[in-house]
Amino acid sequence: MARKFKVRGSKMEQYSVGDQQEGVDDDLNPKGQNMSFLPDMNQWVRNHYIGVVDEFVAEVGSLEGKRILDLGCGEMLMTYGLASRGAEHVVGLDVAKLDPDRSLKTLVDGGFPDAANFKDRVTATVYDGIEMPFPDEHFDIVFCWGVMEHVANVPAVLAEIKRVMKADGVAFIKVFPWFHSYYGSHLSDFVPAPFAHLTHDHAAMRAIIEKTAHEQTAVHPNLILGHMWDEYLTLNRYSANMFYRDVKAAGFARDVWKLISYQHDLTNAPPAYDLSDLMVSGSDTLLYK
């Protein structure tokens, strides 16, 4: 699964180039700064290996000696990053084919040769997207970053997260963006009309990005029309409210939330949606068994 974010200092946040909003001039969204779902490759590697893990450790504490599941691990750069913080073992789990050796080469080529020291602590596992091939109470920590908005059966995955967590374990789930928010399509860099994904069907959205993909110069059009479009098609159209209901139904003992929101002009937002759906761009959730 792809993960989208931009670093500002040591704080990890996720943005869209399209968010050049008048009157916003704070540390999260400084006036005039371009923000993108697609940072350059060197920044991408650093963000995944260091920045995301810094934020995660700030939330959950030391990873020393922990057995961790990286759910929806994608490129496995964060899997190695988790291992680098003293974890006993980190399993990268995804529905797509994984190549930990290639991931390691990406890290080494990106300026992090130390990642090779953690190869023996990392395992790659492919699964069907629902049933995790692990025994009950197997992991101290379940880590899930930028994945849940693509999951087809959220209740089933939450049930599996709870099952494989140890009794004193914790799950950390970060989602950005939730579908109904300004950034929800993952295509907001390339679609000039705000909230277009709530008013346009797939054919209309495709027509827009086929035009705008060739007008920008930051990335190759094939990346937008291929990878980014495929990301859009896999979105489960969840909101934070929908996810909250599923978390409650899963029966976790505690659920702790942090909501991510930014200033938006809602003058022309589609009228059928609640304020919370439009304004909650993302969430960090800690789940305790």
Can you describe what's shown?
With 289 residues, this protein is of the alpha/beta class. 32% of the residues lie in helices and 19% in strands. The chain is built from nine helices and nine strands. The chain has helices spanning 41-60, 77-83, 100-109, 154-164, 196-199, 202-212, 221-233, 240-250, 275-279, and strands at 6-8, 11-13, 67-71, 89-94, 122-126, 139-145, 165-175, 254-260, 282-288. The strands form two sheets. The protein has a seven-stranded mixed beta sheet with strand order 5-4-3-6-7-9-8, with helices on both faces. The radius of gyration is 19 Å and the shape is globular. The model is unreliable at 1-35 (pLDDT under 50).
Map the helices and strands:
Blueprint: E1 6-8, E2 11-13, H1 41-60, E3 67-71, H2 77-83, E4 89-94, H3 100-109, E5 122-126, E6 139-145, H4 154-164, E7 165-175, H5 196-199, H6 202-212, H7 221-233, H8 240-250, E8 254-260, H9 275-279, E9 282-288
Parallel strand pairs: 3-4, 3-6, 4-5, 6-7
Antiparallel strand pairs: 1-2, 7-9, 8-9
Helix pairs in contact: 1-2, 4-8, 6-7
